[in-house]
Amino acid sequence: MPNGWYPQANNFENAQMLQDYLAQYGGTVNDINADVAEAYSVGQVLEQAVTKIHSIDNADLIKELQSDVFNSVQGPVQFPPDQFGANTQSLAYLFQWQGGNFLPVYPSSVAAQNPEFPKSKDY
After folding, report:
1. What is the model's pTM?
2. Contact 112, 119 (CB under 8 A)
3. Cβ distance 99 to 39 under 8 Å?
4. Each residue of 16-38: pLDDT tens digit?
5. Contact 61/55 with Cβ under 8 angstroms?
6. Residues 36, 21: contact at Cβ < 8 Å?
7. Which of 73, 81, 107, 120 is the 20 to 30 Å CA partner of 58?
């Protein structure tokens, strides 16, 4: 199952986001939906852009967003000045249940285990 964030990700301010979320809503880190990280990332990127240019003017923000790389709980963020405006730095993670644990298996830089294929029946 692919995703752009997971609680154990070693990304910018991820530990702080987890701590703040749990203080506010309780539960465990495994209860936090990836949508939370996506929304949080929006705030992080906007804060960095506004801080850098000292403006909330849309044209100025667009120019800044298209000219810099930003940090987020989802990893680096960069928007090229093209017709799509998609984050070119995004990284998708792949997870598997292995031995009763939900583990990142790709990319290798963050993998806790190698992907199993064919998949064992221990899930």
Report:
1. 0.83
2. no
3. no
4. 999 999 999 999 998 999 999 99
5. yes
6. yes
7. 73
